[in-house]
Amino acid sequence: MSEPFLIGDTMTGGYGKGPDILHECTIAVNPGEIAVIVGPNGAGKSTAMKAVFGMLNVRSGSVRLDGEDITTLSPQDRVVKGMGFVPQTSNIFTSMTVEENLEMGAFIRTDDFRDTMEQVYDLFPILRDKRNQPAGELSGGQRQQVAVGRALMTKPKVLMLDEPTAGVSPIVMDELFDRIIEVARTGLPILMVEQNAKQALEIADKGYVLVQGRNAYTGTGKELLEDPEVRKSFLGG
Amino acid sequence: MDLLNALVALTNFVIVPGLAYGSQLALGALGVTLIYGILRFSNFAHGDTMAFGAMLTILVTWGFQAMGITFGVLPTALLALPFGILGTIGLMLFTDRTVYRFYRQQKAKPVIFVMVSLGVMFMMNGLVRFIIGPGDQRFADGERFIIKARAFKEMTGLEEGLAIKTTQGITVITAVIVVALLFWFLNKTRTGKSMRAYSDNEDLALLSGINPERVVMYTWMIVAALATIAGVLYGLDKSFKPFTYFQLLLPIFAAAIVGGLGSPLGAIAGGFIIAFSEVTITYAWKKVLAYVLPDHLAPDGLVQLLSTDYKFAVSFAILIVVLLFKPTGLFKGKAV
Amino acid sequence: MTETLKHTLLFALVGVLILLEGATDALFFSGSWNSALVILNMGLISAIMAIGVNIQWGFAGLFNVGIMGFTALGGLAVVLTATPVIPEAWTAGGFGIVTALVLGALTIAAAVMITKVMPAGKPRALVLTAVLIAGFFVYRAIFDPAVSAIEEINPALQGNIGGLGLPVLLAWPAGGLLAAGAAWLIGKTALGLRSDYLAIATLGIAEIIIAVLKNEDWLSRGVKNVVGLPRPLPYEVDLQNDPSFVEKATGLGLDPVVASTIYVKAGYAVMFTVVLLVLLWMAQMALKSPWGRMMRAIRDNEVAAEAMGKDVTRRHLQIFVLGSAICGLAGAMMTTLDSQLTPGTYNPLRFTFLIWVMVIVGGSGNNFGAVLGGMLIWFFWIKVEPMGLLLIEAITSGMADGSPLKAHLLESASHMRLLTMGLILLLVLRFSPRGLIPEK
């Protein structure tokens, strides 16, 4: 098997000097794929993603992007390398307009980013209508669209979403998943942490079930959904 | 006719001084609010920053005057202002490099920053007194009035005169220009937007590749400019005395908090609210009322709600009311 | 070197500095025992203020920058307690003033009631405004004539309501009480908000207290000052006229005039030391008690303490009132020492921020640190001026006499004070943030 585009390889580590939360955990994603991390509360799902993004002290193992070892880079440097990250909370600039949010997403770019902005608007048409409204006045689902749009503005090589559907209604959740599939179809690899395991695995090309910071089950979304063990333990039968 | 006279008296003693003072407070409060928004602490050295900027400008003004350079009808200080701003920017960047940056890297608590700003306040206060002395300095020159009271009376035939000092006119015009420039900068330029983004959501700003040190540097530069302009305008309008600038801290903070700490628009509104409250509450209304009311109702006393010595009490009372009922201020600041 | 030894040496250093001040006139010392005692007395008072601030900051993390106001209230307490009763003033306007003040308090109480009872909205705002405005005008209508009546009585010497004619030592606890009352009011409003807000609120209240003292002539004679306050110790003149004292002094080989001033100042020093030691002991006991441990627990983690069911705001109010009362007590002692109240001389740099330098340099959270900081920084506050002059003289010695720069530098040397204090504060905060005697 060839090297995946982005891989957090056998990562062990924790926050600062604190105890290890991840134990030899491996997460990977390839172009055109949606990889989903699921698991029970406190399993280290978000932690695993933060480790890939450099917000964690990875004591052993490594993170590689497109074959390059980026284990020691800061999150900011990883953004420059092409990683787009959407945090779970406070992921937009509430006092700024939608358009300004997108502009800030493109802050590190020195070229003309108007095309990218058009693409984002094409992907999330509602944002085009609300472009001059402060992002803080939008609904929960629209805010998540702004957050994803902001991350897309850097033209990332990989997009990471930390629980994008937290706190939105089921209808909005379905719509958001549709958009995420659309983004993935453009060839952009997507790594996502999800609370709503069932729905997330349905759209996932690859799923990781974490338990206590370790890989418990790995497979395609379909495989995991059909796995009786996984169904029994994590998907509620 | 009496109504007109009352209106003129009101304009002369309340509206014009209130506008000028409000502009000065607004500029000062803008500086405080920007520091709060970006560096997240209440800068107690702000009054002394204003004093320092004004002092540099005064020194340059004296230099110009000695060389025989003047600005015609306008005060020479306006010519000297850019030099004062540059010098203050230098001092601010130096202070940030030598003092504040260390605590930023330590991620110190806001109250530590406040305490550090006390130390900076002491040093700046000492520096200003050391260089120019603690006394009163007058440095306004050029034409003193735009309209003189007597000329106004002759022109209109009214009993009441209206006098507008040049410095009052300059204060308001300069404030409008400065505020317009500032809002243009914050809302239209890439750097300005990055400052707002950083103030709004620091972590996300970092994720977006915004360099915090650059944001902080621009903030100090803008704050230095605002403080110098506010200090010079206040000094031109009243007079320059280091201790007065220290005392301005209270109304300036009140203005910034009333408007909502961290909100530039709030700082401006707060500045005018505080200024007009101070002026109206400490103004003796006898004259205006005498024109408006029929003779038998004319007041005996001065009808002054509070003596001018209590003008600080006015800003303070407003501050307390806002803290009690709306701690985030009128324009939704950041702090609770 | 053990900690205890180091701390003892630091205290010894302060003692030696004060002794040198009396013994030699080399360098910046003056060689006058009188001056040494003056420094010692104010140093003791500063130490007490520093204890008050340390209780607030060191124990509870409260940032009070209104120390000046509480100190001044202590000074006012001396006037109100110890000056003789002026019956004429009371007959002329006493009734009016008391009525007006009661009415004012009732208005505010009514306003508070209205905010509590009525639902928020337009009617409440209207009623509230109406009550406040009506109350204000009634208050002024009663208050103003009473004030002018009082101020007309013998304005050269009195013109105020005078005091209660009680022994001056009673004024010290009274000063504490007065400051405690003001602290309670301000604490009620500003505690529980961000720490910066308490700072700004206290800064404001201090300015207002000073404004009241400066302008309410009926109360404190304003900028005309109240002089000749009663003192707990005999007057120098009386001592000099006392044959037995003169005899003793000459017996010790001292000039009676010098001996009398030193006798009085030493007497104050003894009294202040007793107060300081009592407060220090109490503060230490409080720090070690369960109450003190709880305070520090709250300071270190407010959220956790709140989760454990501690009423943080209430505790904060307690300690804020307590610390401010100590500052008020110190203020009363200071006014007694000066035997005059001069509202015009209260300056926040000297009475608020300098105390902060003392606490930080001494070691916040440690009572002994506060005492050391108070004494040491006070010594330097007094001596920075002659030190600065020495420095400037050294720097300018190469310059030509009569050069304007040299003249300016020499003239400005006295402003070195604030510069130096700021520098000391910044250096300590940066390189030794826990101070000379750190918290255990």
Cα-atom Rg of chain C, whole angstroms?
A: 24 Å
Element string of chain C (H = helix, E = strand): HHHHHHHHEHHHHHHEHHHH
Strand content of chain B: under 5%
> What is the count of β-strands of chain B?
2
One letter per element, helices H and strands E, the order of chain B comes to: HHHHEHEHHHHHHHHH
The helix-and-strand class of chain B reads mainly alpha
Instruction: Detail the poorly predicted runs of chain B.
Output: none
Number of domains of chain B: 1
At the first level of CATH, the class of chain B is: Mainly Alpha
- Cα gyration radius of chain B (Å): 21 Å
How many helices of chain C? The count is 18
> Residue share in helices of chain B?
over 70%
Largest interface (C-beta under 8 Å): B-C, 50 and 45 residues
Shape of chain C: globular
Instruction: Please state the second-level CATH architecture of chain B.
Output: Orthogonal Bundle
In spatial order, strands of the major sheet of chain C run 1-2
Number-wise, the strands of chain C total 2
Keywords for this entry:
heterotrimer, A: 237 residues, alpha/beta, 6-stranded mixed sheet, 4-stranded antiparallel sheet, 10 helices, 10 strands, 37% helix, B: mainly alpha, ABC transporter involved in vitamin B12 uptake, BtuC, two-stranded antiparallel sheet, 14 helices, 73% helix, globular
Architecture overview:
The complex is a heterotrimer of chains A (237), B (336) and C (440). Chain A has 10 helices and 10 strands. Chain A has helices at residues 45-53, 75-81, 98-105, 114-123, 125-129, 140-152, 170-185, 197-203, 221-226, 228-234; strands at residues 6-14, 22-29, 34-38, 57-65, 68-69, 83-86, 158-162, 190-193, 206-211, 214-219. The radius of gyration of chain A is 17 Å and the shape is globular. Chain B is mostly helical and 336 residues long. Chain B has one domain (2-325): Orthogonal Bundle (ABC transporter involved in vitamin B12 uptake, BtuC), CATH 1.10.3470. Chain B contains 14 helices and 2 strands. A two-stranded antiparallel sheet of chain B has the order 1-2. In chain B, helix 3 (77-106) runs antiparallel to helix 4 and helix 6 runs antiparallel to helix 9. Chain C is 76% helix and 1% strand. In chain C, helix 6 (171-190) runs antiparallel to helix 14. Chain C is globular. The model of chain C has no long low-confidence stretch (mean pLDDT 88). Chains in contact: A-B, B-C. The interface between B and C is large, with 50 and 45 residues.
